[in-house]
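Page header: ASSEMBLY MODEL / two components / 1023 residues total.
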Amino acid sequence: MKTPPPPGDPAPGAGTWSISNLQLLAKQVVEGLATGLHRSPHKGASVSFKQHRPYVPGDELRRLDWRAFARSDRYYIREYEQETNLRATLLVDLSGSMLYRGTSATLSKADFARQVASCLASLLLQQQDAAGLITFDNKIRSLLPSRSRPSHLHLLNEALEKEVPGGETNISSVFEKVGPRLERRGLVVLISDCFDNPQTFLKALAQLRHQQHEILVFQIWDRDELEFPFESWTRFESLEIEGESQVSDPSALRDTYLDNVARFRTELAAGCARERIDLVPLITDQPCSDALAAYLKRRRQRR
Amino acid sequence: MTFLNLALLGGTLAGGIPIAIHLLHRRRLNTVRWGAMAFLRAHPVQNQRRPKLEHLLLLFIRISLPILLALCMARPVLTGIHALSGTAPASTVILLDNSASMAASTAGRSSFERAREEAARIIRALPRGSEVAVLPLDEPDKPLLPPTVNLKTAAEFVEGLAPRTGWTATAEGFEAATRVLSQMHHAQRQVILLTDFQKVNWHPNDATTRQRGMERLLGLPLPPRVILFNVGAGAALNVSVESLEFSKSPLGAGQKTSFRATLRNFSSQPIPDLRVVWKVDGAIRNEVRVTLESRSSTQSVFAHTFAETGSHFVEVSTDADSLTADNLMLASLPVRERIRVLLVDGHPSSEPLQGETDFLSIALQPRPETPSLLAPTTIEPSALTAKALAKTAVLVLANVRSLGPQQVREVEEFVRQGGGLLVFPGNRVDALWYNQTLFKQGGGLLPASLESLHDTSMQGRPAGIQITRLEHPALESFNTGGLSLHDYAIRSWYSLNPAPQTATDDSPTSTMISLDNGDPLFVERRFGAGSVILAAIPCNAEWSNLPARPGFVPLMQRLVVTLSAATLPARNLAPGDPILGVFQNPPGNKDPQACLTRPDGTSLWFPLQKKGDRWLLENTDTRDPGLYSLTGPDGETQHFAVNAGRRESDPELLGLKEITETATALKTTLVQSGEELRALENESRYGQELWRMLLFIVLIFAFAEIFLQQRFRTRKGAQI
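Prediction written out in full:
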């Protein structure tokens, strides 16, 4: 019988994800999904009317509104809303805390985040939207600008794969640097455990939101982090800060810990709701596809 | 600082247990690499040094707890400071003078009654939890009351005590108190000696011994406070029967014997009409009146003839005074049946005192016209037959040349059956025959062989008798008294060569007495059930002046009585001497017992122990003076007289100045009354036990440990 790895150890094969694995997974996930993240661009009658303007020489005659001419005996040109493709940016947290893999999980949080990012990227590109990628810990590690070419998925997966998780988390600082780079308003998808100071984190989210970006936060949890199942005396060694540790009796610590987690989640949820940001908790012991499908279904129903 | 239970200090090593637990615990820790470190802390930002300080504080408390508990159990005592209160339990040893002089009373109240009351009051006044022991000063090694915490019972016990008849052994009392006190437990210790300070018992000559005993007592790790309590009631009137003298020679039925009692007046007042009563076997036989001047003595004489054999006792007493123990004296006299002695004269003579046994015959029966214990009969060697030996207890061969083979066999059988044989050599004996036929290289009758004959009549100095302590029962009377061994002149003698002793020899040859040149004079050995004594000289005056000396008669009588197996254990004893009863067991009685009746009238039955063909009873419980009667399985009663010593008879006490000097020399505190003692007790006691304070600290630490552990765990998530 194979002995499961101890909790907290980095997932086997971390950082050695092959592109084909991610692509295969993304394909399977996307095929299983009924719809994408947003409406696809359309042309023709179904295009939304915006306004009339007087005809000037040079305008295409086919865009004349003959019905308006009949009613007013003047030439008007029909104008429609401009149709553009979505520009989505995936921000993937690859800090040290994302290395945790609990007793009941088969993937570390970082690997799970990779899967989520890959799936979303695949879904976006399939809808002919542009998808970009930023990986970070307390700084930006890599940045791929948004592209809508299908071949861009390969680059994204490659970027996700090559980054090895580690280092401290500082999402607020990263957001400050990311904000100016996102010129056009678009979709910002944050995939992280969000282990940061909730006030500064929410403040950074609000700034992005203020730039008219739509923000989606996939918060990655390990089951252990939610239930704290430890019993015997334990030395907790930090995954982010070398040398930081704490010896505790988990049974006596459990209540305090769970209170802290609940307070953190409540504060985070309240802040996101205030900024109309979708906060989607994902747990690593659940299949990535199921979790995404459930979220997209809820999102579609909301519309 | 000292400790009552020093061994328990080892428990302080338990202070290492929390450290060991801590180290073991560290080794068993699971390690988890964890991301959500921020949620492990109640306050994400806090002083990192604080947990360490809290941890050290708890560790300190946990280490301190077993150490303090061990210290508490070791019972440390802080000496040199005054106690805060006088309610701490104390260990008290009461040395109670219960000697005879304590019975002296004035104004109807004896010294012992006062001592008894004060002792009971002292015990009742002790703080709760105290322990007390009561030791008697006559026998300090045998506590009247071993250490006990039951103060009520102890006080009631003391109130029921009575004085005894021994004398005060103060130094031994201090030694015994040292031993008892070293087994007691409390830090506050005291020894209270209640005595009348009788002069003879507190003599300056004994000061060094007393001082040594006191130094041992005060040399204890926790020295006690020693208090001398004077309970003397004052000098009392006392007349004592100082001694009772009588003949220690074996006494036969019909023999008249005399008793002489010495009476002494210890008071300064003359006693004009003192009644002296003589009793024989409990019945008054004589009553006289004597006059006793102050501090003087007089004598009273009494003579009596015992008509019947058996055990008898004589008692002399005077009018009662407050010191009753010395008003009476007893004597026990066993009156025996006649002992038949067969004298074989090897060289008879018709001339007076020229025969071999003439002097001996006279010595054994000095007054033929009056009854005596010994009945000698003289025969010639040819008349020595089995018939002649039939009713004989002791056979004497005096200068007999030799015996026929049949006679030898009959004599051997006679001795083997329990008869006594006394052999005197002379100028007619055939030494070679004696050695070959009777000695037989040590396997025959004689205990020694006859070697060379020494003759100093023509040349050389006569031999004397070696002056040394004589252990043989027949010769013990020569150690003391008026019988002297100095002026004996032995002109000729046989050199006796005792039979060598072998490892399996259960009846070794013993030399009873020797000449001053080292040659044995009398040699003895058991043969079968009887005994044989061989002399180096004849029993007439040819070779020595022995028959002409005063010691000849008692010597010959004792030798014959000893050989007749009629020697009895001592019947006149001092307190503590063992009673030894010897009985014949009636046939068919498989479980013989004897009944011992004590002076107080109580009777107890004891099983007899078989030794040879006799049955013995030994009893050492003769502390109380008086008459002890022992009745054997054959109905025979033997009396034992136990007379107390007269050391305590002089009731004179030390003066106050002398008592004060004695107390000062012994570094003790002197009190004269109960009020004075109570005032002394109200003063502070020395030595403060710390175990209560330590126990209090232990409790505080225990509560602190629980409280701090809960507090630290709650605040920072059970980091401890």
